[in-house]
Design goal:
86% helix
C-alpha cells in the first residue's frame, strides 16, 4: 500500500506544478497595474505565509486528516485564481498570494504526512528524507 501512495504522490506533485498560468502570472500582474516592486512584495507574502504555516499544517494533517487539508488546498487554489481574474493593483494580488500560501502549506503538510505514514507502514521511515528529497526534485 505504501508504494502505491508514494507513486501517487509523485504523480500528484508532477501534475500539481504543471500549471502554465504560473509562467505568465508576473506579466499578467504587470499588465494589471502592478510594479516590479509590488510583484516582489506579493512573492514575499507567499513565501512568508508558506514558511509560517508549513510545520503547523503537518500537525493539523495529523489531527484533522490529510484529506481535509488537501481539500483546503484545492479550495484555496480555486479562490487564488478567482481573485487573480479580477485583480487590479497590489491589494488583490496580495490577498491572492496570501491564499496561495495557505493552500500551498496545507497541501505540502498533507503530502509530507502521507509520505511519512506510508513509509512507516512498511517500517521504512528512515528513508523519509531521501524520498522527500526526490519528491522535491519532481516538484
Amino acid at each position: 500500500m505504501s508504494i502505491k501512495n508514494i507513486r501517487l504522490l509523485y504523480i500528484s506533485l508532477f501534475f500539481h506544478n504543471l500549471i502554465f498560468a504560473y509562467v505568465i502570472e508576473r506579466l499578467f500582474a504587470l499588465e494589471r497595474g502592478m510594479t516590479v516592486q509590488y510583484v516582489v512584495y506579493t512573492e514575499i507574502i507567499y513565501a512568508a505565509v508558506t514558511v509560517l504555516l508549513e510545520i503547523p499544517s503537518g500537525a493539523v494533517a495529523d489531527r484533522a486528516g490529510r484529506k481535509n487539508l488537501l481539500i483546503v488546498g484545492g479550495v484555496s487554489a480555486f479562490f487564488e485564481f478567482f481573485i487573480l481574474i479580477y485583480a487590479h493593483g497590489f491589494w488583490l494580488f496580495g490577498i491572492s498570494a496570501l491564499i496561495a500560501g495557505i493552500g500551498g502549506a496545507c497541501t505540502s503538510g498533507a503530502w509530507n504526512a502521507l509520505l511519512y505514514d506510508s513509509l512507516k507502514a512498511d517500517n521504512k521511515q528512515e528513508i523519509f528524507e531521501r524520498v522527500l528529497g526526490r519528491m522535491q526534485a519532481v516538484d
